[in-house]
């Protein structure tokens, strides 16, 4: 009989499996670098803290968040042994509809890439009304979405190998 989950209330949001066996890529956007640099720092530290080996982490920068989909596709095509890709970016609402197009494109794009390769592609993109909201979520009063993206990547890499 298939193993069953424990009561879901036993699971902590931050209960993370050991990442020692996994190879994970991080693609980070250069737009709003003050924010994305902190997201990247959080993600990298979290991967290392949970056992992912430094030599098994690939880090690459792309110009803007729009490029994250293409980056995830290229990474998964070139590195067949990757267990997950983390996409980090920060899109801040402006006066035009650019924000909506970029956010929709990234959300749909990285979902499709994950499905195409049957690999976890993690959405670590802040979509905020202003810079302060982004700072609050990249190491400020609301934590760091980079950390969250990293432990989600390890959990989904574990899922990939145990499902
Ligand atoms: C053009 C643009 C704008 C206006 N705003 C952002 C943003 O807030 N965050 C971000 O990551 N990128 C932005 N970009 C750049 C686009 O993501 C992309 O790099 C360009 O449209 C070129 O494809």
Architecture overview:
The chain has a single domain, classed as Lumazine/riboflavin synthase (Rossmann fold). Helix content is 44%, strand content 21%. The protein contains five helices and six strands. The protein has helices at residues 33-49, 68-78, 98-117, 131-136, 145-162; strands spanning 24-29, 57-62, 84-92, 121-128, 138-140, 143-144. Strands 2-1-3-4 form a four-stranded parallel sheet, sandwiched between helices. A two-stranded antiparallel ribbon has the order 5-6. Strand 1 (24-29), helix 1 and strand 2 (57-62) form a beta-alpha-beta unit. Helix 1 crosses helix 5 and helix 2 (68-78) packs parallel to helix 3. It is globular. The model has no long low-confidence stretch (mean pLDDT 94). The structure holds ligand DLZ.
Secondary structure elements and their pairing?
Blueprint: E1 24-29, H1 33-49, E2 57-62, H2 68-78, E3 84-92, H3 98-117, E4 121-128, H4 131-136, E5 138-140, E6 143-144, H5 145-162
Parallel strand pairs: 1-2, 1-3, 3-4
Antiparallel strand pairs: 5-6
The chain binds ligand DLZ.
InterPro entries: LS (IPR034964), LS/RS (IPR002180), LS/RS_sf (IPR036467)
Binding site for 5-amino-6-(D-ribitylamino)uracil: 31, 65-67, 90-92, 123
Protein name: 6,7-dimethyl-8-ribityllumazine synthase
